[in-house]
Amino acid sequence: MKKNVLVFGAIAGIITAGWMMVAVVGHYNNPNFEGSMWMGYASMIVAFSFIFVAVKNFRDKYNNGTISFGKALKMGLYIVLIGSTIYVLTWLVAYYCFMPDFMDKYVAHVIDKAKAGGASQAEIARQKQQMAGYVSMYKNPLGVIVLTYIEILPVGLVIALIAAVILKRKPATEVGIHTV
What is the tens place of the pLDDT at every residue in 164-175? Predict the structure, then answer.
């Protein structure tokens, strides 16, 4: 199980981190974050779909075709943790080394989008206040880490849960012969 978790967790992390690096370059060439955001979540879904492959591989090749819901979920959660950690570490490098002004650009994008959408002054003020909270969190590396995990973990957790439900398989019961 450990090998499957490590291999497929690394694959998930490489997929999400790789897409992030493509998006990082795109942010500086195109200030519209919308396409990058949707593609980022799509890459997370693709990356964490490897949970299905890992659990099925373990179940069929190493566990006699059976796996409990709990064990399948545990495998999925470990894969999510590994993939998410690679994603977070990649973001820390990208943010601190290449995009230290990310939050300034993102806040400007959010406010411009609200204005273009016809938001009232009160709505724009609320949006600015909410974004100020995120900017404040981004001033501390721990805040960056927490917000980045919050971005990716829910996607992985849902996929791990779905995989565990779909791939669980109880051992076949043997038919016993009873004599009277």
Answer: 999 999 887 644
